[in-house]
Structure formats: C-alpha cells, structure tokens
Write a structure and sequence with these properties.
Order of helices and strands: HEEEHHEE
Largest sheet: 5 strands, mixed
Number of domains: 1
Oligomer: single chain
Strand content: 25-35%
Shape: globular
Distance between the termini: 56 Å
CATH architecture: 3-Layer(aba) Sandwich
CATH class: Alpha Beta
Radius of gyration: 16 Å
Number of strands: 5
Number of helices: 3
C-alpha cells in the first residue's frame, strides 16, 4: 500500500511540476519577451494526443511554444528533449491547429522554453531559458493555403 501511494504521489508531483513550469514560461514570455498568450494546453479535437503547451502572438507571428520543465541536475536538458520524434508530434499538432483557423497566418514559428526548478528542499529560484525559432516547419509549409 505504501509503495502504491508513493508511486501515485510521484506522478502527481511530476504533473504539478509540469503545470508550474508552463505557468512560469507563460509569465516569462509575457513579461520579458512581450508575447501575448493565445491558448494554453491546446488539444486537437480530432486527436487528443496532439497537444500544444502554449500558443502565443509575437506581433503578426504565431508562436507555438513547447515547455520543458526539469529539476536542477537533470540528465537531459529540456532543449535537447525536443528531438526528431518530438518534432514530428509537434509538427502534426501545429498543422492541426493552423488548419482549424479561418485564416491561418503564413508566419509562425516554434520556440522552446526550458524551466529548471530547484531540487526539492533546495534554495533558489527557477531558471527560465527561451530558445526561439527552432527548426520545425518545411520551407514552404503553409496549411490551409
């Protein structure tokens, strides 16, 4: 029973860290980068597996943001967790989002925000890093046009 509760609590805390990281990322992008938040945790109504953490506006540019939250000392930094497989998933989700818009913009990009949380019990503030213009879309990719 104790092991089962430990497993459940661990999963809950991990989800909580992800939600905290997304909130910190949204706040950072608004305050430090001047982006407007359009949507949080958007899911494709046709395929619920397709999810976008944040969708923002940077002037006329639509920005899809993948947020990666890590604990200090994690083996794989969040930026590197957005690998080829993850990019395929993100491209599918971004395309689905663009196709459901009445008039999709032809200017959009992918950003990654990495949030590093201090270890449990350790002092310190979270560290937020923003990586803009991550290669994702084919050169002439413009769904809906």
């Amino acid at each position: 029973m104790l092991r089962w509760l430990t497993v459940l609590f661990g999963w809950w805390r991990r989800g909580d860290a992800g939600a905290r990281g997304e909130a910190l990322a949204a706040e950072f992008l608004q305050r430090e980068r001047g982006l407007a938040i359009v949507a949080r945790n958007w899911r494709n109504p046709r395929d619920r597996r397709d999810e976008l953490d944040l969708i923002c506006r940077d002037g006329d540019v639509l920005v899809f943001v993948e947020v990666k939250t890590r604990s200090a000392g994690a083996l794989v930094p969040g930026y590197y967790a957005v690998d080829r497989r993850k990019k395929r998933v993100l491209l599918r989700a971004c395309s689905a989002y663009l196709q459901q818009l009445r008039s999709p913009p032809c200017t959009y990009r992918l950003d990654v925000v990495e949030v590093v949380l201090p270890r449990a019990g350790a002092a310190g503030a979270p560290v937020v890093s923003h990586f803009a213009k991550i290669p994702l879309f084919p050169k002439h990719h413009c769904p809906g046009h």
